[in-house]
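so i finally got all the pieces together for this one. its two components total, 656 residues if u count the protein bits. some of the lines might not be protein, just check the labels. i wanna see the whole assembly predicted at once instead of chain by chain like last time, that was a mess tbh
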Amino acid sequence: MAIKPVVISGMGAICAAGKTTLDIMSSFESCHRKPALPTVFATSLEYPVFEVAGFVHSPEMMRTLALAYVALDEALLVAGLTPGALLGLRVGVCLGTTVASQLNNESWYRQYRSQGKMQPEPIHTYFKGNLAEAVAGHLNIKGPALTIVNACSSGADAIGVALDWLTTGLCDVVIAGGADEINHIPYCGFGALSVTSLLPCRPFDKNRNGLNLGEGAGILILETEISARSRSRKADLFVSGYGAAADAHHLTAPRPDGSGLEAAVVVAMAQAGLKPEDIVFVNAHGTSTRDNDRAEGRTLLRIFGDKLKFLSTKGFTGHTLGAAGALEAIFAALALRHGCVPANIGFEDLDEEIGQAPVSVKTSISGRAALSTSLAFGGNNAAVIITGQ
Amino acid sequence: MYIHGIGIISSVGRGLEAHRAALTNGQETKSSDGVHRVSEVALKDPALAKDARRAGRFDRMAILAGLDALKDAGPQSTAHSSSIGLILATGLGPHVTTFRFLDDMISFKEKDVSPTLFSHSVHNAAASYLSLLAGIRGPTLTVTRFSSAFQEALTLAQAWLEQKRCDYVLVGAVDELGSVMEEVLRFRASGENIAFGEGSAFFVLSQHPSEKNYEAIESVQNATDITLSSDQLVLTERLFGRLPCQSAFRAAVAALLLSAPKTGGEI
């Protein structure tokens, strides 16, 4: 059953492609990307990453939370919401992450192991670092607050939870999105899983050989139409549908037939009251791993047919894990607003196993609905529908 | 929301009968080291032998409580795999595995760390196992907060049912107590003598009435709005110890107390 769409009244983003949504669009426009070896920790491995260059934050705050606050400030500013204005509304916070949910301070743990000494600061930082609790506390928000830890679909799932809170009348406004940082643990972990590339990633390319990790944050201010109207806010972009479905297949590999992803897309389109032909483009998960891109590409082709325009923006941002679904929904929304999608940077050769090429150059679009897909470790699939006017 | 099934594993043991008996007897469940730890015996089950043989304690507790809740609810709840959703709440996640992975990073070269430990160190590995073993193909989420994670999960379950995302939601909480985290928690407690605990409690919920004798969940309030009497706190802490997702155990205790036989039921 179709639902009433919710208004996107503000968006904020930070990632390796830029520190604001405007900067990021400019990087997309110029096809600029610069993956490099990490600088935030020492390593003997040689996997390039997409770090936010020159990002400095207080050592008392998790880097992930600091990234989230940058995107939050931009989103609130665009939405015309001050902390004071939020107090008069029923506000919720739903944010996705992976790294910020763990007590994974390596130097703290090394010292504990070698000397049995428990340094207090990293412990305080960890317990102040639950994203939703921290943001809710920072803004004195009393509504629901939830941190989603669904691996790589966390950011998309956070948008879906926000949609449900707004649709069921629990909130007027929800701060939704995701954030994650470049961290030594996933850097080693993804390397051990043999899914990271020594080269800049090439989503959907025949010769792709793995992902590059990235970091960043994407925050959306979502609002009921009544609330946006009461604040005289312009409403030109909406979240119109969300679907999620589990693969029930494997801990780290997607279901090869893509049936979990398809089920998520079907639910999202039904919520939005849309048919496959209404979708103008898909901002796909497209990690540049062999398994993900094959399963996802084939599934999108099966649902939408060979006229579909699709791309992955991970060639510009790297895989930002818990932030990815939120950042990519924001990029989809901005593409609808500007009437064009960026190139799927890194793509050169068609993969016959997928059977269709993503957009390889900046491409004009006309229409009002886009889909953003996310596939996660653990087999969760999420689909978010963004519509314009 | 109506409760169709409950599954629970704690220092008391595994299953509803063990917990009903503990409520009746008021038994002490602390282990010799002064914490409420789930016994290895309670964590043994043939269901884990094949597809979950690499699962850690955190995953195992969640899997067993989740599967027990589904079994208690009966086959109708899982008759259609896409009509059941899963929400798993946790305060601290699988930190034992995270620390084991850090041990690997410290002891070996970066390229020689265990991929299995890494894939099990993410918070949603337990939900992934549970969906795999129960064949759940509806929406599946893992959520975390240091406080009120279970209440927020219940609120979301209610929204899912209202939105018809699924007909049933398997919703629950899990937290484990490893030695490093125990020391962290003691450090934060500043010398207060607290018996920490671990375990998992799950519920099968639906909008339609259950054939079981459980009462319904009428509403969910933020934990800051709830005041429990010291007797109630003593009851649950004595059985389970203190843990971030404690409210799931309180809810399970409440459901068991309310479902006790009206005559002769003394708990």
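The CA atoms of residues 157 and 163 of chain B lie 10 Å apart.
Residues 263-267 of chain B have pLDDT under 50 and may be disordered.
anyway lmk what u think
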